[in-house]
Amino acid sequence: MFVAPKNDSDKNQIPLRLLSDDQTTQGSPTADAKKPNDERKPEDRPFLGTELKDSSAASFHRRGVRVRDARAAQKDGAQERNDFYAARDQDTPKKEPQPEEIRLQDRLEAIKKKEQELLARKKAKEHNLPYIDLTIAPIDTQAVWLVDQKQAEKAGLAVLHTLKKDGGGSAAQIALTNPENQLAQQILKKLTQDFSHLNVFIASPRSLKKAWARYLDSPQSEARITGQIEIEVDEIKRVQKQVKNVADLQKLVKKVSPQKASELLEVVIAGALQTEASDIHLEAREQDSLLRFRIDGVLQDVIFLPALSHHVLVNRIKLLSEMKLNRKDIAQDGRFTIAYGESKIEVRVSVIPAAYGENIVIRILNPKAISLGLKDLGFRDDELVLIQRELQRPNGMIITTGPTGSGKTTALYAFVRTVATKEKKVITLEDPVEYHLPQITQTQIEPDRGYTFAAGLRAILRQDPDIILVGEIRDKETAEIAIHAALTGHLLFSTLHTNDAAGAVPRLVEMGVNPAILSAALNNILAQRLVRRLCIKCKRANDNPADYQFVSEIIASLPPVLQKKHQRAKYEIFQPVGCPSCNNTGYRGRIGLFEIIHIDSDLEKLIAGGPSHAHVKEAAAGKHFTNMLQDGVIKIISGITSVTEVKSAVGQD
To answer: Could you tell me where the Basic and acidic residues compositional bias lies (predicted)?
Structure first.
């Protein structure tokens, strides 16, 4: 709510010296305008071109010379004067301004200033807002920093003071030049989330420069230094050209002033995009802050930042994400979007209070992650044939399993992109919608409003879909509706949290699903993990005999067809080294390890009886099934990943 101050005696009003028509009696344009022209001093008169012209004409008449005669005489002597001045300038060096000239310049400056203040007063009247002269008003440096300098100058405003009100709530005083400026309106709207009252004043552009000069002052480290910015894509691209790895980013961050929140955030985001980080972590410590990136699933330290930089970044991101700036004792979630060329990058933000300040994690939902094809995910050729065939079926369920961060969503999106055509209606039900897919209807659950997976799935079935993606099956109700959809002519994709593919069947039965109905609906169950790819620029041969022994034993356990294809007298396996290209980790990028259980007639009969996890796994092993460990070893001998990565992913010592 925007509130104009009632009077200077209001106990909740921040003391400012305000100049309004009813408060000024001396030296104000309003008061001077009431005086006859003869009583006003020349410097107090408004500067008007027509008045100057008329007074000049009157002067000529008083001297007995007609105006047109004077103009004619002026024209006749013009050439003579020009010749004289040209000769003089050639022979005489430029003179320093004379005292008379300086006084004239001062007079002109004063006239211009008065003009701007008059226009500001007029605009204040038009919008029924009080006028303020910031050249004589106190300004709080910490309050100014509530809005980023770049945005403040673009919007033509400044925050002058903040105040906690006696009866609860808080107030902020803002001066602006144009209340109709759209960016100014957006900033005011965001400030209302943190302040119960906004007292808005009109100031002249010249006057506002005094407030902007306060950005040069260094605010205290405990100050709330926040701001709203639009992510500058050109700046991000410029930074990306300079950043090839984390080391380059460290150098660039050190060059940015801790006070320049906009530039600092642009550098951090550009660095994250360039290094293909999935998450940005900003962790408050006792004396400083630690910036870390999650690259290829592993957290890497980037740089230690001053405490001031931590405040700048956290509060800037909170403002962008439309969080409450004045609440530092609660967890908050938000999101914003980066318009990056023709594509848009969604950014999901989480803030929690910690011992030394607020910690923030930014999840970067880069569209590149879902532009992968089935082959790019890491499916072997034999698996690829099976998946492509199953995706062409008109109905049934395909379930992917694995822990958080194992690539399940990416796999499901790849399935959807493969089957989505103009002839088919595809609807998703997600929590939340992370990536936007073209030509697909995406919906997000809202449990607080009663729109759960179960309720959403019921609603989707009334939308005449051909293909449905359900983000996760969490309970019996959702599972039963999903199975019903799969049995009534819909192809449905979903996920479960189980350790392997065989565990999906007993998990659904434990939820209360009838195993006989489940067996008829299931087409395929996949389990997956992600492992890091070896850097192709620095990987080298592994000479550890124990690793070769491990690989040989797993190859010997493969189904006969794959064993014949991959078994050889000598294997070549590689290990990571590290170079600038891979941030000295030895890895760059990730690939999936998969196990796929295809539900044929034999397995369908087994599932109908409610089998245990061991029975499902044993039955699948006789169907040319390969588990994730075996798939990982095939990728090891193909030079894609390392023994260490595979063992870590599948839980082998």
So the answer is: 32-54, 66-100
Which helix (H) or strand (E) segment holds residue 347: the answer is: strand 343-354
642, two tokens: 């390392």
What's the pLDDT tens digit per position in 447-475?
Answer: 988 999 999 999 999 999 999 999 999 99
Work out the end-to-end distance of the chain between its first and last CA atoms, rounded to an integer number of angstroms: 62
Omega before 576 within 30 of 0, i.e. cis = no
Consecutive H or E run containing 540: strand 540-541
Residue indicated by tokens 């006969």: 560
Quick check: is 491 in a domain? yes
Condensed to tens digits (0 to 9), the pLDDT of residues 615-643 reads: 999 999 888 899 999 999 999 999 999 99
Give the Cα separation of 247 and 250 in Å (integer). Answer: 5
Q: How far is CA 630 from CA 61, 241, 296, 541, 562, in A?
A: 107, 40, 22, 21, 10
- The domain that holds 245 is classified in CATH as 3.30.450.90
Give the per-residue pLDDT at 215.
75
Largest CA distance in the chain: 121
- Are both 244 and 185 inside the same structural domain? no
Of 172, 195, 217, which residue constitutes the final position of a domain? 217
Domain count, the chain: 3
* Tens digits of residue pLDDT in 241-291: 788 888 888 888 888 877 677 788 888 988 898 889 999 999 999 999 999
Query: Between the CA of residue 434 and those of 369, 444, 463, 547, 574, what are the distances in Å?
Result: 11, 10, 22, 39, 35
Q: Is the same domain home to 345 and 297?
A: yes
Contacts of 84 (CB under 8 A, 6+ apart): none
Number of H helices, E strands in the chain: 26, 18
Residue 200 structural domain: 111-217
Residue identified by tokens 């599972």 is: 479
Q: Indicate which CATH number applies to the domain containing 401.
A: 3.40.50.300
If asked whether residues 206 and 286 sit together in one domain, one would say: no
Per-residue pLDDT of 577-587, as tens digits, reads 999 989 999 99
- Whether the CB-CB separation of 473 and 583 falls below 8 Å is answered with no
Rounded-to-integer distance, Cα 583 and Cα 45, Å: 69
pLDDT at residue 93 is higher than 60: no
Do both 388 and 511 map to the same domain?
yes
**Is the omega angle on the peptide bond into residue 46 within 30 degrees of 0, that is, cis?**
no
Residues 167 and 287 in one domain: no
> Which residue, 365, 393, 423, sits at the end of a domain?
365
**Is 652 part of a structural domain of the chain?**
no
Task: Tell how strand 491-496 and strand 396-401 pair up.
Answer: parallel
234 and 279 within one domain:
yes
Query: Which pLDDT tens digit goes with each residue over 6-33?
Result: 444 444 444 443 343 444 333 344 444 4
pLDDT score of 515: 97
pLDDT tens digits along 516-549: 999 999 999 999 999 999 999 999 999 999 999 9
The H or E element that residue 396 is part of is strand 396-401
Same domain for 359 and 375: no
Which DSSP string corresponds to 48-97? -HHHHHHHHHHHHHHTT--HHHHHHHHHHTHHHHHHHHHHHHHHSPPPPP
Is-contact 175 160, C-beta < 8 A? Answer: yes
- 3-state DSSP assignment of residue 522: strand
Question: In this structure, which amino acid lies at residue 219?
Answer: P
* CA 455 to centroid of chain Cα atoms: 31
Do 488 and 615 sit in the same domain of this protein?
A: yes
